[in-house]
Amino acid sequence: MSGNETPEPRWLDDRQQQVWRQWLLAHRELNALISRQLQADGGLSLPDFEVLVALSEAPDRRLRATVLADGMFWERSRLSHQVKRMEARGLVSRIDCEQDRRGAWIGITAEGQAALDKVAPGHVETVRRHLFDRLDEASLEALGRATSAVLDGIDGPEVTYPNTKVS
Amino acid sequence: MSGNETPEPRWLDDRQQQVWRQWLLAHRELNALISRQLQADGGLSLPDFEVLVALSEAPDRRLRATVLADGMFWERSRLSHQVKRMEARGLVSRIDCEQDRRGAWIGITAEGQAALDKVAPGHVETVRRHLFDRLDEASLEALGRATSAVLDGIDGPEVTYPNTKVS
Lengths: 167, 167
Fold this sequence. Notes:
The structure is a homodimer of 167-residue chains.
Chain A: H1 14-42, H2 46-57, E1 62-64, H3 65-72, H4 76-88, E2 92-95, E3 105-108, H5 110-130, H6 137-151
Antiparallel strand pairs in A: 1-3, 2-3
Protein name (chains A, B): DNA-binding MarR family transcriptional regulator
InterPro entries (chains A, B): HTH_MarR-typ, MarR/SlyA-like, WH-like_DNA-bd_sf, WH_DNA-bd_sf
GO molecular function (chains A, B): DNA binding; DNA-binding transcription factor activity
């Protein structure tokens, strides 16, 4: 690697390495637990749930597809496929605006809201049991500071992710 | 909701709600940044990268498909599609064992290792710039404790995720 014009990478030290792995694994594990609960309680996937939460919290309970995609950090094509499947199941509805180049609106249906209401109690219980019940006050504050530091300087998307109180 | 036989859900309080959203957004944002870097530096997707890292760290640089899938918390079918695509690009190779019911082995190829080496410096730089450079020593320790608390009591998968030092 020597002799390159680029400087030697600043490799992580052992502790940083360990924390990084824990960060990734903790997130992955939580997602797996949440996915299982959403599927069991309401037949929803995690992406289904994320879309429904974003829509349920939006003004007039609908969002432009572009705004929704950006808020999820998803490619437009991924959102399009996702919405198509959810539309077929009656969870969301799409309103195309031919005269509006900014694209279609996606809205949550009554059925979508019912699905969300059904999984919400189990969802918050999962998040509590595997995260917040395990953190004392100081750890909660520290986690808040650390995650906030990551987000610092980033333009927040218009859509923020999951409110665990869905009512 | 009253009148149900189930107790009222323990909704998150405002601070927990905020930390939870930050946790999710920080992870999503980091993943988006990492994805962009991997794509730009080596034409790899984040799943490509995760598979390559897991294989590169495994004994003999190969893993059973089942073990790899479990380590990623992926469905077997997802891994199968992913591996098929990576095999077509020469990044991994698959060795089927007909007499062994525990399934095929997946190994990293020299080309796969080269792709990993190529993206590694930019990867660690991205992780540093957006996470570790933003945390002081106390926040690092706190993040370590918080993520460790989430993982506590969980059977670790045989495959742990990304070493950011890939050499």
